[in-house]
Amino acid sequence: MINQTISHYRITAKLGEGRMGEVYRAHDPRLGRDVAIKICDERFSEHFEREARAVASLTCICTLYDVGPNYLVMELVEGPTLAERIQQGPIPAEESRAIARQIADALEAAHERGIVHRDLKPANVGGSRRKAL
Questions:
Q1: Does residue 12 sit in the same domain as residue 66?
Q2: Do 38 and 90 share a structural domain?
Q3: Final residue before a domain boundary, out of 52, 75, 98
Q4: Same domain as 31, residue 11
Q5: 27 and 53 share a domain?
Q6: What is the reported pLDDT for 130?
Q7: Could you say which DSSP state residue 122 is in?
Q8: What pLDDT digit, counting tens, does each position of 65-87 carry?
Q9: CB 36 within 8 A of CB 57
């Protein structure tokens, strides 16, 4: 997928993969910014539509920019994932509390909207603002 284009987004790197598809870093030349684009294995299904609506409702966690027939374009949150941070060694208590607080706040926001994150793990918590992805 690297260097391929989806709509007007140019794929520049693979960021990860999950149950529903793969996530890539892409460049949006219209707005001159990098984004995260999740390419789903299936076209616009009921499950995909639910995920798009859930992401769109959780702007405190991640901003949804665009939706295509089998992709979601989202804010790219820079920085290491929690899994990468754990690999660096012990996390001091103050930093651990701050991370736990941010995760709890994100989960609370999701739960208030009736959304359950079904894949919460250190690799899915990331960025400089520790957003649950």
A1: yes
A2: no
A3: 75
A4: yes
A5: yes
A6: 40
A7: G
A8: 999 988 999 999 888 889 999 99
A9: no
Q: Which residues are catalytic?
A: 119
Q: Looking at the structure, tell me whether residues 88 and 64 fall in a common domain.
A: no
Closest CA to 105 of 130, 85, 124: 130
Handedness of CA 37, 38, 41, 47 (dihedral sign): negative
| pLDDT tens column, 87-131 | 999 999 999 999 999 899 989 988 888 888 777 889 888 765 444
CA dist., res. 96 & res. 75, Å (int): 25
Domain count, the chain: 2
Q: Are strands 9-17 and 5-6 parallel, antiparallel or unpaired?
A: antiparallel
- The owner of tokens 């901003």 is 63
For residue 120, CA distances in Å to 11, 14, 32, 42 come to 26, 20, 31, 22
Name the burial class of residue 68, with classes exposed (0-12), middle (13-18) and buried (19+) by CB atoms within 10 angstroms of its CB.
Answer: middle
Structure tokens at 41: 């294995």
Instruction: State the average pLDDT over residues 53-75.
Output: 87
Rounded distance between C-alpha atoms, residue 61 and residue 58, angstroms: 5
Does the pTM of the predicted model rise above 0.70? yes
Query: Averaged over 12-22, what is the pLDDT?
Result: 85
Q: Which domain holds residue 43?
A: 5-75
